[in-house]
Amino acid sequence: MTDNWKPTASLETLKTRARVLQSIRAFFAARDVLEVETPILSTSAITDPQLESFKTQFNQSDYYLHTSPEFYMKRLLASGSGDIFQIARVFRIDEQGRNHNPEFSMLEWYRLGFDHHALMDEMEGLVKNIFSGIQKNISFKRISYQQAFQNILGIDPLESNARALAECAKKNNIETPQGMELDDKDMWLDWLMVMSIAPSFAKNEFTFLYDYPASQAALACLSENDSRVAHRFELFSGELELANGFYELTDAEEQSARFINENRLREQRGQKIMPIDQSLLDALEAGLPECSGVAIGLDRLLMVLSREKHIRDVIAFEIDK
Amino acid sequence: MASYSTNEFKGGLKLLLDGDPCSIIENELVKPGKGQAFNRVKLRNFKTGRILEKTFKSGESVEAADVIDVDMEFSYNDGEFWYFMDPNTFEQVAAPDSALVESGKWIKAQELCTVTLWDGVPLVVTPPNFVELAVAETDPGLKGDTAQGGTKPATLESGAVVKVPLFIEIGEILKVDTRSGEYVSRVKD
């Protein structure tokens, strides 16, 4: 008999996980944010070419496991739920490694009337709350996407084209990965992000990176003052990405156009076209209140909290165990 | 031609890169939030013995190296090649010095080693984790000194030099860990 049946996380870490869940619920209860649960299975799916959904069948129809509870939560918001949060297990194909498990725990919440900076403020409060008693004096920093690229690589990510970014990578001795699409600007931005920008963030600090290029808006609204940027932000601990948030796009037409465009991209790359969530578009049409929302990977937050280097060390059983 | 996609990458997988067979030591998926995923891979090049790092856009396919491990008995070394024989098929292969950079000093005739073959050509020879070898040369033993921790160098019959306790004599058989190069114990006949 082998030891393979045993949990991959220590009991102590699992107790920390339970405490974190309790403190999250207490945090939102104190702020009158309603806890909700929404379906994992849906006949529609996310169109983002960077995300692959698990698929299953029921009643002769295809169903997809959600990659985040975002669409159903927005339908609740549009129906008048007010502020809501959810702790959900989400699923993503092809994501496995030191910082990835194909199923993982996500905390997602929405605040009406908050812009992305107000939500960053609240997130700071939540993380401090979770860390209190374990690690004091944790510090946060905020920097815009553009400023980060200018400080670290001396290049403007909004104005530079793919060729200039490739040149910049070369100058900084960053190799070109096999399979790189040389004229794909966003791919170069992503590559510089993982090789240079994120690794430059202070190890013992949390960093909010905000106002991403409009081409990487996902479900964020564009800035009113500068249409080159979207009000999207991410939270990092050192170089580890923890959370992604949006000052939410409420325009149904624009959202529909983005879905269609993403499906077009999927088709070009030889990926399957995903069924667009018409109910979400209908909800946006009916009226999504102005709000900001964010999703944080709880397993990674636990990794930071318990100083573990592998995601398997903070989940009871990693996949294949 | 067989190939692997980056999502099949894991330690020990054998790939062909720029025509050289390589083995994955470490594979890390890096993925910025909503962005493109990449694989950062650490590999050992079997031909040069060097460790290299390479990155791939996730989803890329890489040609598999047709590499197999076979247990073979060491026969002899003619000064140019090391000859190994498959004890089941009696098939013989000749390995160049470059395949035995780490292992040559540990093996003697009839030792069963793991020979990694690429298209039938030996790339690397791995000795057993533990070998038993006679001491060919060492300073005279200090009688009675079996407790204290002092060591001295000893040359073994296969050519390796290991640190041994002071009481070891020429002709004695020692058990040695080839991974650490450390003396384990004396072997009693």
Structure description:
- The complex is a heterodimer of chains A (321) and B (189).
- Chain A contains nine helices and eleven strands.
- In chain A, the strands form two sheets. An eight-stranded mixed sheet of chain A has the order 1-5-6-11-10-9-8-7, with helices on both faces. A three-stranded antiparallel sheet of chain A has the order 2-4-3, with no helix packed on it.
- The mean pLDDT of chain A is 95.
- Chain A has a single domain, classed as 2-Layer Sandwich (BirA Bifunctional Protein, domain 2), CATH 3.30.930.10.
- In chain A, helix 2 runs parallel beside helix 8.
- Chain A is globular.
- By secondary structure, chain B is mainly β.
- Chain B folds into three domains: 61 residues, SH3 type barrels (Roll), CATH 2.30.30.30; 60 residues, OB fold (Dihydrolipoamide Acetyltransferase, E2P) (Beta Barrel); 57 residues, Nucleic acid-binding proteins (OB fold (Dihydrolipoamide Acetyltransferase, E2P), Beta Barrel).
- Chain B has a five-stranded antiparallel sheet with strand order 9-8-7-10-11, with no helix packed on it. Chain B has a five-stranded antiparallel sheet with strand order 14-13-12-15-16, with no helix packed on it.
- The N and C termini of chain B lie far apart (52 Å).
- The interface between A and B is medium-sized, with 29 and 21 residues.
